Amino acid sequence: MRVREALLAILAQGPCYGYQLRTEYARRTGGTRLLNVGQVYHTLERLERDGLVDRDDPDELGHVFWALTDLGADAARAGLLAPSDPADRSALPVKIALAASLPGVDLDEIVDAERTAVAERIAGLRADLAAEPADAALATVAGGLLAGAEADAHWLDETARLLGAVPPHLRAVPLSDERPRRGRPPRADAAA
């Protein structure tokens, strides 16, 4: 899942400011991927340019909150339903972790969309291998891609089973009320 789609999915839960989005992303993906706050703001500016988000005036602390437009809400849903990039092996688990944490998201629909994409990838790779390519390197790569796609299919089945055992209201994580602070904490010797 690209950063663009992840930020839109989080913003579908309510307006956030940049550093808050960075923190929410880390919290919802188990901290496996950390975003540079500059990357977050750059992405927000592109989303604004594309008409997917609007920025509000700064609050009393200087936080600029961003909110989805109607077009952005449609893009957030489409991003969750779009198949993950098979070239990025960590994209699928990150996407499912993020989606599972979002209140009001139909996780079964997202998993089913991923299952369909993986099944199509498996069928295509099996057809490529059955064609008996003359190139051993091509056959080796196709075999490796097939093994990865089959692993994704197995992982999706296991993850759906595990997450299905947890009621949606227990796995959904609302936006945090705690506002993340910017900057480094004060040094202990400076406080004395």
TrEMBL record:
Pfam families: PadR
Record domain Transcription regulator PadR N-terminal: where: 7-76
InterPro entries for this protein: Tscrpt_reg_PadR_N, WH-like_DNA-bd_sf, WH_DNA-bd_sf
Region of interest called Disordered, as start-end residue ranges on this chain: 173-192
PANTHER family attached to this UniProt entry: TRANSCRIPTION REGULATOR, PADR-LIKE FAMILY (PTHR43252:SF2), TRANSCRIPTIONAL REGULATOR YQJI (PTHR43252)
Listed name of the protein: Helix-turn-helix transcriptional regulator
Source taxonomy: Bacteria, Bacillati, Actinomycetota, Actinomycetes, Micrococcales
